[in-house]
Specification:
Layout: H1 2-16, H2 18-22, H3 42-46, E1 50-52, E2 55-57, E3 67-70, H4 83-92, E4 97-103, H5 113-129, E5 133-139, H6 150-164, E6 170-173, H7 183-198, E7 205-209, H8 211-214, H9 225-228, E8 237-244, H10 250-259, E9 265-271, H11 283-296, E10 300-303, H12 333-343
Parallel strand pairs: 3-4, 3-10, 4-5, 5-6, 6-7, 7-8, 8-9
Antiparallel strand pairs: 1-2
Helix pairs in contact: 5-6, 6-7
Bound molecules: ligand IDC.
Ligand IDC is lined by residues 106, 141, 176-177, 213, 242, 244, 269, 275-277, 303, 308, 310.
Length: 347
């Protein structure tokens, strides 16, 4: 069934964008939108995930490290999420996971819940067709207290979980980056949201952002002990950590390192540059982090899969207007580096 639908997707892609299959380009790999996609996908190999101790495990109870990309805000960069780009992510980059970043404010969900919920439904289907995990990111940011959007979150996740409950590739991230709120406030929010999702999708893995913009509290002058001493009362849940390698160095790394021995962690966002998502890349610190995440089998999604002008957007400006996303040609330096870390599992 999966093979058929993937083949169908390919045919559709070829029909829509014949240029991809017929035009010779400098990089041969760029010609194949999705050469032999396949029965063998991250989701077909791993199935329904669950939290096993401190790790994320697959259907055979083996730890699995997922690697993939976060979209930019879908209210701004939906042009970067089309057949050719998603094919490139799945079949050229060989990503395991797509994080669907739906802002709540800043022109996002709150402005048109129907429209944004439908967009997320659509991107979930696109990830599913290609055998990738779909991480549904409730991208609250300003205001930073997730409780401010509690009733919206309940409405949104009830519909998402109800529609997709029979899929085995959905992960729910109920708070992107809580800020200006105590850990206790986030815990209270999570303990209200988890039952809402589980009432529809009982076996789902749920992520929740930590305090201080998902810094395990460090950006608030606190640390992971707030969480370890007051864990969320729920199973199958992971705590998220974000870092921007040019900004967040030893103190953040140390907190991650300590916390990873105590609580299950997933890195739902990181950049190789500063926390603005811009500026020079620090590949030395990025490598230090990613080597560590590999050693712990902590999964990650990089910010971000767009052609925004900032250095952290993987594509060069203007790329998303076209249909050439494969290879390194369309990528900024951060994109080249990240794609390599996704393709090469031995890195
Ligand atoms: C940035 C975007 C930028 C947008 C800004 C405001 O790159 O275009 O104007 O958000 O929302 C985060 C956030 C993420 C940020 C990213 C880079 O989760 O939304 O994106 N970042 O600044 N946390 C740390 C860094």
């Amino acid at each position: 069934m999966q093979i058929r639908s993937l083949a169908g997707a390919l045919l559709a892609a070829a029909a829509l964008f014949p240029v991809l299959t017929t035009t010779a380009t400098a990089a041969p790999v760029a010609e194949a939108p999705a050469a032999a996609p396949a029965a063998d996908t991250p989701v077909s190999r791993n199935g329904q995930l669950h939290v096993c101790g401190l790790k994320l495990c697959n259907q055979n109870n083996q730890p699995v490290q997922l690697r993939g990309m976060s979209t930019h805000g879908i209210q701004w960069y939906s042009s970067c999420l089309k057949t050719a780009s998603l094919d490139a992510l799945a079949y050229d980059w060989k990503a395991d996971i797509l994080r669907i970043s739906m802002y709540v404010q800043e022109g996002g969900y709150e402005t048109n819940p129907r429209k944004f919920t439908d967009m997320v439904h659509g991107y979930i289907e696109e990830a599913t067709k290609r055998g990738m995990y779909a991480l549904v990111d409730w991208h609250q940011l300003t205001p930073g207290d997730p409780n401010a959007n509690l009733s919206r979150a309940k409405t949104f996740f009830t519909e998402i979980a109800d529609r997709h409950k029979n899929k085995n590739n959905i992960i729910y991230d109920i708070a992107n980056e809580p800020n200006g709120v105590s850990w206790a406030g986030i815990k209270s929010y999570a303990e209200q949201m988890v039952p809402v999702i589980r009432a529809k999708d009982a076996d789902s893995v749920i992520f929740v952002g930590t305090h201080g913009w998902a810094s395990l509290g460090v950006s608030d002058g606190r640390n992971e002990s707030d969480i370890i001493n007051n864990k969320i009362n729920a199973t199958n849940l992971m705590y998220t950590f974000h870092f921007y390698a040019a900004s967040h160095k030893q103190e953040y790394f140390d907190a991650l390192s300590r916390a990873s021995n105590q609580i299950p962690i997933f890195v739902t966002e990181f950049g190789t540059q500063t926390y603005t998502g811009d500026g020079g890349n620090d590949f030395t610190w990025s490598k230090k982090y990613l080597d560590f995440l590999k050693s712990k089998q902590i999964g990650w999604t990089n910010w971000n899969f767009s052609d925004d002008f900032r250095s952290g957007a993987v594509f060069k400006q203007g790329t998303c207007a076209g249909n050439s996303f494969t290879g390194t040609g369309p990528l900024k330096p951060a994109g080249v580096w990240i794609r390599d870390r996704i393709i090469n599992r031995n890195l």
